Amino acid sequence: MPLVPVRDLLAAAAAGPGALLAFNAVTLEHVQGVVTGAERAGRPVVVAVSQNAVRYAGGDPAPLAAAAVAVAQRSATPVGLHLDHVEDERLLRRTAEIGFSSVMVDASALPYDANVAKTRAAVAWAAGHGVLVEAELGQVGGKDGRVLDAHAPGARTDPREAAAFVAATGVQALAVAVGSSHAMTSRTASLDLELVAALASAVDVPLVLHGSSGVPDDVLAAGVAAGLVKVNVGTLLGVAFTAAVREVLADEAVVDPRTYLRPAREAVAAQVARTLALLGT
After folding, report:
1. Is 172 helix (H, G, I), strand (E, B) or coil?
2. Could you tell me which CATH number the domain at 6-279 has?
3. Among residues 60, 84, 158, 217, which one is catalytic?
4. How far is CA 2 from the centre of its chain?
5. Residue 218 falls in the annotated catalytic set
6. Which of 85, 126, 131, 273 lies at a CB distance of 3.0 to 4.6 Å from 106, suitable for a disulfide?
7. Three-state SS for 20?
8. Model confidence over 198-247: pLDDT tens digits?
9. Could you give the angle at which helices 193-202 and 217-226 cross, rounded to 10 degrees?
10. Distance, CA of 275 to CA of 272 (rounded, Å)
């Protein structure tokens, strides 16, 4: 079916129950696994490509974006495409050109006023290109080697500041720091559910959780019930993908990449289907 704007998928998720799930893709196998898993679950999904994935691909987003568009258009379930954690303005301005209907502008490491200014400028540009803008307020640690305690004073998103930020920028989705952390391979993180509920009451845009892979299933479900509308998943897929590859490569005679990429793709599909069944709208 045709690509579905992330704006429409978010609106449907906001009406509940469940959340919109966005899965990070690094390779074609990731994209195929995400869409296959969504089809199995019968749920809408977002394929997200991060600035880091673009950097890994040599700095040009077009090849992976073209693959994502092609796979998504052949899907039996609604698929949206999202460009994630963008700091480079040149990449931001390619969002619509390469088929993506939403972008996460990441200025969260900057001082508050600079975050507001950069996000507001992105929203102004995106308004003329049909692109939804997500931003981040607070500090979700674990990305790009930045060490930050998710429980440190000042790390979490303040509801009053969030309301002011949304009003000042016009941003249409807000990633919040509520206890999760990027790149966790153990599922031991806890969410501040009272803070999630307070943030949901303070702002009138969908709340987004980054760093969900380290959060146990039952806590994620509670977070969605408390007000999270979009949940991003990345490391969880990397764990499944890599485990499948390692199992095959235990046989040192294997040299054909298809031999290990096929089960890796299937492992991604299985994880996506399971997560969507648990949380998906």
Report:
1. coil
2. 3.20.20.70
3. 84
4. 21
5. no
6. 85
7. strand
8. 999 999 999 999 988 889 999 999 999 999 999 999 999 999 999 999 99
9. 30
10. 5
